[in-house]
Predict the 3D structure of the following.
Amino acid sequence: MPDHSENELLAALEGLKAEVRALRSEVDALKGRTPAPAPKGLAAKPAPVAKLQRLCHSCNAPNEPDAAHCDQCGSPLQGGPKAEAAPKPASRLKALNEPLAAGKLSDWFKSLDLSTEQFIGERLLQYVGITILAIGIAFFLVWRAAHTGPYEKVFTAAGAGAVLVALGEWLKRRPPYDKVSHGVIGGGWAILYLTAFASHHFDATRVVTSPTFELALLFAVAVGMIGHALRLGSRALRLFSFGLTYFVLLVASEGVAMPQVFLILLVASTLVAVETGHADILVVSVLGFYANFGPVWHRMLATPEAQRSLAHFLGQTSSLIGGYAFLALLPLLPRVKQRLLKPDTQLALDAALSLNAVVFGVMAAAMGGTYFRSLSFKRALALSLLLDIPGLVYALVLPRGLTFAAAAPMTGLVILAVGIFNLPAPMTKMLVWMAAAAAWTWVGLLLDHKSWRIPGLLMAMLTFGLYASVAGASHAQRHSASVSLFYFSAASYLASRWYRLWLKGPVPDWEKPAMEYWLYVGSASLVLGLWGVLDPAPFAISLIALAVAGEHLAVFFGRPHLWGQASFLAAAAGFYTFIVDFGANLPAAGPLTPRMLTCGCVVSGMAYLYYGDPVPKDSTRAWKAWSIETHRAWLSWIMLAVAAFAVYHEFDSRMRLPVWAGMAFLLYLLGASRDEDGLKKQAVLVAGATGVEGVLSYLLQPRGLLAEPTPVNTAVYWGSSLALLLNLSFSKDQRRKLTETDHQASWAFCCLCMAMLALYLAKELQSYHLTLALSFEGIVALLLGMALGYAELRYPALLLLGLCVFKAMVYDSSMLPLPQRVATMVVLGLLLLGASMLYVRMGKRDEKDPPDRAS
Amino acid sequence: MKKILPIALLSAFTAAAFLLARQQRIDETRESLLVALRVVQQHEKQLDRAASKVLPLTPEEERAIGVEFDSRLTAGAGGPDRPQDEGLLREIGRPLARTSLVTRFPDAYEFRVLHGRPGNNAFAVPGGFVYVLPGLLDRFRTAPAALAFVLGHEIGHVELGHCSDGIRTREWFRKAGLSYVGDAAGLLRVLAQLHFSEVQEIEADEFAVKLLKAARQDPAAALQAMDLLELPQDAGARRDPADAAWEGLSDYWRTHPRGWERRSRLQRLVGRRPR
C-alpha cells in the first residue's frame, strides 16, 4: 500500500501529465491538427480557450477561418486554421496573433519577438547550416569533377537540390522542425538553380550547349523556385528566390540578349508583385534589373570613339529606359494603386520606385557621361525630363506623402545641375542654374508641392557657391557671373512680391518666411553681383548706398525685413572698409585719396541714417533681431571707428593727433547740440584715445619716420590743440543741463590740449630746452587756469611742472655741464616760486570773491 | 529737403563710385585682413620701442656688440676676396650714412660683402654693420640706385633700432649676470617679433626712401629694387575671401611683407602709380 506521501506524489505526477497533454493539444491546434483524445482515467485539465483562426504567412495577420486571402496583405492563405493561443505559456503566440502595424520594417522585426538566443538557435543556425551545406556540395562537385562526367555531376547536384526541397517540405509538417524547413527548401532551390546555371557555363558540368535552352532551363527553375516561395508565403524565401534569379541571370550567358531578358523578367516580377500583393518583390527586381546594366555599360565603353553616336547609345540603353518607364508608370495603373498603394505595402512600393528613379538617373547620367566623355547640358536636360515628367504627373495625380514622387524631381534636378555645371560660358551657366532653381521652386509653388519647392530653394542657395567657383577663375568670368546674379536678384525680388499668389490653404510653418526668403536671396544676389563687378572701393560705397536706399524702400513697401537688411548693410559697409587695402592710395580727386573718398562716403551715409533718421521707429517694430535704437547706437560707434581708422592710415603719426582731436571736439559739439550723452561719451573716448596714441604712435616713433614739421603742419597742430580749450565754454555753459559726461569732457579736452602741446615739444626739443619749454607750458596753463578759474587747466599744469622738476633733478642735472645745470635749476626754481606766489594771491582773492567756478 | 537729401547723397555716392571705378586699376585695391592687422602690429612695435626707454642701449654699447658680430661673420666668410666690391658698397652707402636722418651712427657705417655665401640677400647687425651677399650684389651691380635703396633699407633697420631691440633684453640680463634669463627673454621676444617683423620691414623701406630723398637720389629706385628682387607685382587679383583670410592667418609665419604690399606702400611714398 502506498503511503500518504506516495499518493501525493502520484497525484502530482498525474497533474503534470495532464498539463503535458494540454500543452501538446495546444501545439496540435496551432499546427492545424485535431488534438489527440485524452486517455481514459486521466482527469485532463481543460485546455486554454483557443479561437480558431488562419494566420497569414506573409504578414502574420489573423484571418477568419474560412478566408482564402489575407485581409491585410491580400496574399493567399495556406494550411488549415490555426488557433489563437491563450496568453500563456508561450510568449511567441501572443506576438503571432497581434495584428501588425502594417508596412513597417521595424515592426516586422519586432513581430519575430525572438530573443537573441532564439534567433541564433532557430534562424541563424539554419541559414549558416544550409550555406555550409551548399558550399560543401559545391566542393563535393569540385572534387567529383575530376572523377565523374558532366551528366553525373549535374544529376548528382540536381538530385541533392531536389532532395533538400523534398526534405524541407517533409520537415514543414513535423513540428518543431518546421522552423528549419524554409531554409532547407531555399537551399535546395539554390542548388537546383545553380546546377541549371552550371549545366551550361562550366566545362566540367556542361550538358546543355544551347544558351537559349539554358536560359529557358534557368527560367523554368526560377519559376519553380519563385512559385514555391510564393506558395510557402515566406518573405525571406521570396526575396531570396527573386534575388538569386536576378543574380544568376546577371552572370549568365552573354550570347542571349540579356537586357531584353531582364526587361521581360522585370515585367514578370512586377506582375507577380501586383497580383500577389507583395511589393517587396519590386525592390529586389529593381536592384536586379539595374545591376544587369553594369556589364552593358562595360561593353558600351569598349565601343570605339568613331562608332559612338546617340543612336548607338539609345540602342544599347533602350531596355534600361524601357524598364525605367515601365516602373515609373506603374503607380498610375488603377490595379497597382488598388493592390500596392495600401498602408501595408506602400513602404516597399515607395522604396522600389524611389530606387527606380534614383538608380536610373544616376546610372543613365554616368553611362551617358562616360560614353560621350561628358554630360552635356542637352543630354542632362533630356534625362532630367524623363524623371521630371513622371514626377509632375505624380504630384498631380497621386496622393501626397509618397517618397518616389519627391525622388524623381530631385534626381532630375541634380542631373540637370551637373549638366548646367558643364556649360562653358559663365554667364549662361549662372543664368540657367538660377532659371532651373526658380523653375523648380515655382512648380512647387504652383502645385503646392514641397518636393519641388525644397530642391529649388536649395539650388537657389547653392547659386552663391556656384558663383564662387565661377568667379574665382578670372576677372572676366566673375564679371559675367555677376551680371547674371543681377537678373537673379530682380527675379527674386519679384518672387518675394508675388509669392504664394496661387497657393491655397493654410501656410505651413516652415514656409511662412519664404516670401522674405526671396527678399534675402534678391539682396544677397545684388550684393554679391556688385562685389563681382566692382573693385573694393566702389563696392564699399555701393553698400552704404544700398543701405540708404534700402531704408527708404523699406518704408515705401512696408517691409521690415528690408529694413533689417539695409541696417545690416550699413554696418557691413563700415566693417568692410577695415579690410580694404587701397594699394598705393594716390589722390583720385584733388587731394582726396581713394580711402578718403570711400570712407567719407561711408561715414556720410551712416551720418545721414543716424541724424536724418529716414525710418519711422514704429515701422521697424516687426523686426525682432534688433531695434532701431540699438542699430543707430551701433551705427554711431561704427561711424566713429571708420573715420578714426581712415585718419590713422591717411595721416602720419604727428598729424593724426590734431585730426582725431578735432573729431572728438566735433562729436562733443554734436552731442551737446542734440543733447545726446552717447555722442559726448564717444567724444571723451576719442579724446582719451588720442592722448594714448600721442604717446604710442607719436612720442615713441623715431624721428626718421615722421614727416618734417612744415609751418602749415605746425600751425594746424598747435591751432587744433589750443582750439580744444574752447570746449570749456560749452562744457561749463550753465544755461544747459550739464551732466557728468560734460564734466568728464572738460577734463579730457584740457588734458588732451596740454598733452598734445607737451608731446610736440618733447618731439622737437631735447635736454634742458625741453625742460624749460615744458615748464613754460605748465606756467602758462597754470596762469590761464587761475585767471579763468578752471581747475581742469591748473591740475594738468601742476602735473607737468612736477614732471619738469623730476626731469631736471634726475636727468638734466646728470647730463648737463655745470653752467647749464645751474641755469636750469635757477630758472625752474624761479618759475615754481612764481607759481606758488600766484597761488597765494589767488587764495586771497577767493576769500573776497565767490568760490572757484570750476571746483 | 528731406526728399532731396537722400537723392543728393545717392547721386554723390554714385559719382564717387564711378570716379573710383575709373581711376583704380583692377588689381590695385583688394580685400585683406592685413590692413587691420598692421595697425595692431604697429602698436606692438611701439610697445617694443617703449622697452628701449626702460632698458636703453647706448650707441657705444651697441657698437661694441656689433664689432663682435662683425668679427664672427667675416671670420666665417670664404670665397675670393674682391676689394672692389666693398669699394662699390662704400661708394654708394657712405653718402646715405652722412645724411641728417642718420643720427645713431652718423658716417660710421661699415659695408661688407660676405663672399662665398649663397643667396640674394642683405642684412645688418647692431652697431652699423651692413652685409651684402654676392648674389644680390651681382644682381644689383648695374643698378646702383636700387642698391642704394637696399643699403638704405639696412641702415634703416639699425637707425630705427630694429637690430638693437632684438638684443637689448638679453644684453641687459647678461650684464646683470643672469644670462639664462636673458636667453629665455630673448627667445620670447623672437616669438613676439614674428608677429610684427613685417612692420619693421615696412619701416625700413620707408626710411630708405627718405634716405634716398635726403641724399638727393631718385626714390623711384625703390621700385626698381623690387623689380630686381623679383617680388611679385600683385597676388590678389583673384579676390578670393578664403585667400584673404588665409593671408591674414598665415602672416605670423612670415618675416617680410608680401611683394604687393611693399610695392604699394613704396608707390605711395614715391608718388608713382602702379604700372
Q: What stands out?
A: The longest helix of chain A spans residues 818-848. Residues 4-102 of chain A form one domain. The two ends of chain A are 129 Å apart (CA to CA). Chain A has 32 helices and four strands.
